[in-house]
Amino acid sequence: MSQQISNGRSDWFKVFIIALIFALLVRKFLFSPIIVDGPSMQPTLYDRDQMIVNKFIYHITKPERFDIVIFHASEQKDFIKRVIGLPGEHVMVEDNILYIDGKEVEQPFLEQHDDTPIIYPIITNDFTLEMLPGGYDEIPEGYVLVLGDNRSNSTDSRSLGLISIDQIVGKTSIIYWPLQRIHFLKD
Known about the structure:
By secondary structure, the chain is α+β, with helices and mostly antiparallel strands. It folds into two domains: 1-31; 36-184, Umud Fragment, subunit A. 19% of the residues lie in helices and 29% in strands. The strands form two sheets. Strands 1, 2, 3, 4, 9, 10, 11 and 12 form an eight-stranded antiparallel sheet that branches. It is elongated and about 70 Å long. 22% of the residues are buried.
């Protein structure tokens, strides 16, 4: 009988170890949580929003315009921003209007869609791609231009330069905490 109890404990221990390894692999390679730090993505995301990052998506597809991505800004810090410009494109903002290759592009995500009071208007200072670090006239292959939704309070491509697709950790589109903000983000 003690042999059966010992085998039962051994089996449960094996199951626990396998489940732990599986959970660690999922977190490392597929999905992981992230907490928004700061106001740079308001009004879309707020400080302390908790989200799930899809880490494998860009192994099978390329980033698309307006994806919200997490990328390595440094070895110690990851940032969350929105993809605005893609390889081969020219980006500029003039009078708060986004132009891609000279054509006006709507940015509906900058509009307030909830009951949170607007603390400050969303204003993007005028810039052209040539004015950003690197001085490119077109976004090179393998890079994207990212901006925070809170354009007046965001460290993004305007100061960091273009972001290598290799720096991107993944895409996020699900807020799971706080409970009153649970929802999928629209592209």
